[in-house]
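REQUEST
  id: r-88c1
  op: predict_structure
  target: DNA-binding transcriptional regulator, MerR family
  payload:
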Amino acid sequence: MYMIKKASEISGVSVRMLHYYDEIGLLSPQKSENGYRYYTEAEMACLQVILFYKYLGFSLKQIKFLMTKDDIEILNHLKKQLILMKKENENRLTLIETLQKTIDYEERKITMSTKEKFRGFVYQDHQKYKEMAIDKYGKDVVEKSMEKQKGKEQELTEKFNQIFALFAENKVKGLKTTSKENIELSQRLHDLICQYSFDCSFEVFSSIGYGYKENPEFKTNIDRFGMGTAEYACDAIQKYVNGVK
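RESPONSE
  id: r-88c1
  status: 200
  body:
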């Protein structure tokens, strides 16, 4: 068993945050007669799972809900997250290779095709979009629509890359997010999701737009096209959505 200070040292979670987890019922350790908190091996294992979910971008409210599931369900969910993380890691390795080629190109003027410049910029993480759509349309409808992507992943990736590259270019040009060019780009992006993924309502598309700037993973990826591109694209999407309502 571990006293709270030791649990904090091992996990890297501050004592204050461990107290907060206890207060909100996320992780409540054992308590001795004098009120001292101490953590069993099982509770330390739970803390590890919480940290995994936090790293993956889940809110404490979402994590608390997930932790109410039985062990088998949590394990299956973690396995799915592991698969996604492995895919992300593959993308990062590709990005590293692309970045190295870019540096070589700039330093030694080594030839690099336009297509090579955008290898690794992947925006086909539709699992999060899919979950939003399931809430609105139901699992059967969404599962059928996801079939449309099979065999077209690379084509979809390149189309997404083109759109975000154009958003970044418009930002550099000083175009307002409300400009005609950006509204048209937002429509292209919306049509792309509808064509390759699911029948995306304006409401869901608006949520996706906010996800671009609020989800750290999405924001980091999109901002590789140019700092601030994620927020810029989000603002354009909201203008597009509000304009067609």
